[in-house]
Design goal:
Elements (H helix, E strand, L loop, with lengths): L8 H6 L3 E8 L4 H13 L2 E7 L8 H7 L2 H4 L2 E4 L2 H10 L2 E6 L6 E2 L10 E7 L7 H6 L2 E4 L11 H17 L1
Parallel strand pairs: 1-2, 1-6, 2-3, 4-6, 4-7, 5-7
Helix pairs in contact: 2-3, 2-7
């Protein structure tokens, strides 16, 4: 790990984060939750919000896929994603649901604004982002897909969105 020049957990907690958070809206799979923690760590997200039925650390299934990222990344449980979204809006976040809906913006056409913070909402593996949350969002982002399936795993979606956001900040 020394050769990889990775931050310690303590250094990670103190370092500047990228201006985005993940909001997990009723994610069922604890393995998906753990994977999203790892993605949040890899791309230096500010925080992960675990809403509704989404499981919280400590749990062995989260730890199995998070590999310790549940200790480095700030997180908080919120009983209701729609209420949290309203709170985040008052804190200045732009809210973006990752969902296939009429009028959605393709992810590659999304241009994050400088000096803005973003909350990316990821929905339930079966039902997606709840309608109440979609209604409250500033934008819905859709990841283009070209095969026979019409959805991606929620943890994979988190990785794609985080990379696209950070890439725009880097280039």
């Amino acid at each position: 790990m020394d050769e990889l020049n990775r931050l310690s957990v303590q250094d990670f907690q103190l370092t500047h984060k990228n201006p985005f958070v993940f909001v997990l809206d009723d994610i069922r799979s604890l393995n998906n939750v753990g994977s999203i923690f790892r993605t949040a760590d890899a791309f230096k997200a500010e925080k992960v919000y675990l809403c509704g039925i989404t499981g919280t650390p400590p749990h062995r299934d989260i730890t199995k896929t998070a590999l310790g990222a549940e200790d480095s990344v700030a997180w908080q449980h919120a009983p209701n994603a729609a209420d949290l979204v309203q709170q985040l809006k008052t804190e200045g976040y732009q809210i973006a649901a990752i969902e296939q809906v009429t009028g959605s913006t393709m992810l590659h056409n999304f241009c994050p604004q400088e000096n803005k913070k973003y909350a990316f909402v990821l929905g339930n593996e079966v039902f997606g982002v709840s309608e109440a949350v979609i209604t409250a969002c500033d934008v819905c982002l859709e990841i283009p897909q070209f095969g026979t399936k019409h959805s991606l795993n929620v943890a994979v979606s988190a990785g794609i969105v985080a990379w696209e956001f950070v890439k725009n900040k880097l280039l």
